[in-house]
Design brief:
The structure holds 2 protein chains of 2 kinds. By secondary structure, chain A is α/β, with parallel strands linked by helices. Chain A is built from 11 helices and 14 strands. Chain A folds into 2 domains: 221 residues, P-loop containing nucleotide triphosphate hydrolases (Rossmann fold), CATH 3.40.50; 66 residues, Alpha-Beta Plaits (2-Layer Sandwich). In chain A, strand 4 and strand 5 form a beta hairpin. In chain A, helix 3 crosses helix 4 and helix 8 packs across helix 11. Chain A is elongated and about 80 Å long. Chain B contains 10 helices and no strands. The chains are: A alpha/beta, B mainly alpha.
Chain lengths: 320, 275
């Protein structure tokens, strides 16, 4: 596929703030090629450059270097065409609390140029789609966090965009609201919408995204399918719980099977170089040495491990 | 690298509907008035305080009108109306700009910018809402004060002149404070700048004629455009419609409006390019 026909392309995209010694390289040369119909997860710690990248791709911020094309249009020279073809739900559900859901949707319909006759119907359909029909005539200020996000999503869908940008769509939501939003995103994606999703939640990226990129200090440090990235981190970790008194001997034995890894209090961790098949040998060795194994747990590398290895951070909501 | 192949829009989305600038601007104006009306705590002070000042002045300064240098009026109320209108509009326009700053803070402004609406439509919509409110305020003060002995020598023509002047003033102050909102992106900063407007009002002939002032106060009032604006409006009330009254009532806010619109468009460009 020719690159210019991809829904989202970034080529050396760059955004610096300030100049001289005070220069802040918020985004420093990001390359992205997102395929049609894909859900692409954009991960990174706070301040890594996720939102700045999204703001550039959605025409809200001019790049200081590099180029980008969204829905086939240049994000700088054809910004207006980009805007017509994308849906944007930015961080924190940016909605005027004094307006009702219905009013906001109708305003959105005007802004996207729908004829007046269609406003009412369109607003009604979208409210139904996100399950807010009953709350449509209430002011947004009375909505719960989950309801605001759903309305925000509905607002970004008014013109059936082919490309959807969701900037941390579930941050601060309770688990039930999060799952219901995930379902809606999947449904949109099944209908053919390309989604770029930024998130701080590894589980969210794991659940939704076919491919992810991890950004840190304005640079993409990992990119690929979650499964591939996990495999790259390498071997699974075996956690063994043994008596305090035998820790020293056990540690020595475990070291023969791979590198020792950080583990929860009271247990020992080892990265098995030969993979899961080594578990029985470990147990046998320990048994032969007269050490009683209290608990045994084998953990495949998680996206959290990928993330930690790439950035040196562990994120909120990580499994371990 | 981006290939030289002509970029085709990815999906055969419906041909982008023609966006009507007028419809957008109208919808945004309606929204800005609606959101103003839904915050009575912001609207009521801009309607009540000027009346309160006018009432207080009328009861306290009833004999001040006999002072040398005071224009010939039947009641201080006739004299006070112009100051009350200007005061109300300074309040009201700041409220509109604060709402813009709030839009910027909570991100709604970004949602507007990410839509294919025109950049100026977003600002003009805000301004138009503020102008409609300015016209309403002017009429409101006139109608409320009429039963209390207000006489407008300029008659209906004078009231229309006042409303035009008030509307343009609302635009000028709204644009100025919006520039502040666009530059700082902070509603606190906009509200924090409000006392400056009030100082401009107090160092003017809004409450007393310049003829009664002396020293530095008098000099400041002479230089203050608010003085000339208020006097133009006041002449419509106490003398009648004249070319000189209309010129001052309309040209002064008109010039202010041109300058502040230029400043706020510049601030908008800056926000879009560099923020």
């Amino acid at each position: 596929m020719v690159e210019s026909a991809l829904p989202i392309v970034a080529d050396g995209l760059q955004r610096h703030f300030g100049s001289g010694d005070d220069i802040v390289k918020a985004v420093d040369g990001v390359d992205l090629q997102i395929q049609p119909g894909e859900i692409f997860g954009f991960l990174g710690p706070n301040g890594a450059g996720k939102s700045t990248t999204v703001r550039m791709l959605t025409t809200l911020l001019r790049p200081t270097g590099g180029t980008g094309r969204v829905a086939g249009f240049d994000i700088v020279t054809e910004a207006d065409s980009v805007r017509r073809n994308i849906g944007v739900a930015l961080q924190d559900a940016a909605i005027d609390p004094l307006m009702t859901g219905n009013e906001l949707l109708r305003l959105q319909a005007v802004l996207y140029g729908f004829p007046k006759a269609q406003h009412h119907q369109r607003a009604g359909e979208l409210l139904e789609r996100v399950g807010l029909t009953a709350a449509g005539d209430r002011r947004v200020g009375t909505y719960s966090g989950g309801m605001r996000r759903r309305l925000d999503l509905a607002l970004s869908l008014i013109h059936e965009p082919s490309v959807l940008f969701l900037d941390e769509p579930t941050t601060g939501l309770d688990p039930m609201s999060r799952i219901s939003l995930w379902e809606e995103i999947r449904r949109l994606n099944n209908d053919g919408t390309t989604v770029l999703l930024t998130t701080q939640y590894l589980e969210e990226a794991d659940q939704l995204a076919e491919r992810i990129a991890i950004i840190d200090h304005g640079v993409i440090v990992r990119k690929g399918r979650p499964t591939e990235l996990k495999a790259e981190v390498g071997s699974p970790t075996l956690f063994v719980t043994v008596d305090e008194s035998s820790h020293q001997i056990a540690t020595g034995l475990l070291a023969k099977f791979g590198d020792l890894r950080p583990s929860p209090e009271g247990s020992l961790g080892v990265g098995l170089h030969e993979g899961p098949s080594a578990v029985s040998n470990v147990v046998r060795e320990l048994d032969d040495a007269g050490i009683t194994v209290g608990n045994l747990e084998l953990r495949e590398p998680s996206l959290d491990d990928v993330f930690a290895e790439a950035t040196g951070y562990r994120l909120e909501g990580a499994e371990s | 690298m981006t290939s030289p192949v002509a970029a085709a829009p990815l999906t055969p989305t419906r041909a982008p509907a023609q966006t009507s600038v007028i419809a957008q601007t109208w919808a945004l104006s309606v929204r800005s008035i609606q959101s103003l009306l839904r915050q009575p705590s912001l609207v009521i002070p801009s309607l009540i305080f000027p009346l309160f000042f006018a009432a207080l002045g009328t009861s306290s300064f009833s004999r001040a009108i006999e002072l040398p240098g005071f224009p010939a009026v039947d009641s201080y109320l006739d004299f006070a109306l112009a100051g009350a209108i200007v005061q109300g509009i300074l309040f009201g326009s700041t409220t509109g700009a604060t709402a813009l700053a709030t839009d910027i803070e909570n991100g709604f402004f970004d949602r507007l910018l990410a839509s294919p609406s025109t950049r100026t439509g977003i600002i003009v919509g805000r301004m138009a809402g503020g102008m409609a409110y300015g016209a309403f305020q002017t009429l409101f003060f006139v109608l409320v004060l009429l039963p209390f002995g207000l006489t407008i020598k300029g008659g209906v023509g004078g009231v229309i002149g006042l409303m035009v002047s008030g509307t343009i003033l609302a635009l000028a102050i709204g644009a100025l404070m919006s520039a502040m909102a666009l530059i700082t992106g902070s509603s606190e900063a906009v509200q924090g700048a409000f006392p400056l407007l009030f100082i401009a009002l107090f160092f003017s002939s809004a409450f007393f004629p310049r003829e009664t002032m002396s020293g530095i106060y008098g000099t400041l009032a002479d230089l203050n455009p608010v003085s000339h604006l208020v006097e133009g409006m006041r002449d419509l009330v106490i003398e009648g419609v004249s070319a000189s009254a209309l010129a001052r009532a309309i040209l002064v806010p008109g010039v202010l409006a041109v300058i502040s619109i230029a400043v706020s468009l510049r601030a908008l460009r800056h926000r879009l390019g560099a923020s």
